[in-house]
Amino acid sequence: MGIGASVALIALGAILTFALNVSVGAVDLDVVGWILMGAGALGLFVTMMIWGRRRPSVVEREPRRIVEERTDVDPADRL
Prior knowledge:
Layout: H1 3-19, H2 29-52
Helix pairs in contact: 1-2
């Protein structure tokens, strides 16, 4: 489950729990909302644990040194 699906489950569960006052037969929508919020929170936690470890580690290397030959100096002037 991804981050978006987890957040959607949390939002849907919060709507069912806190915003609706509807009775649907033998189904308690408050309990369904709490279950959806718990599943969304668990999915968000697991997703963050899995994807958080996939970041590549930083490897520092020595910078490349570019050596250019100077053309503005006459070799005879060095003597």
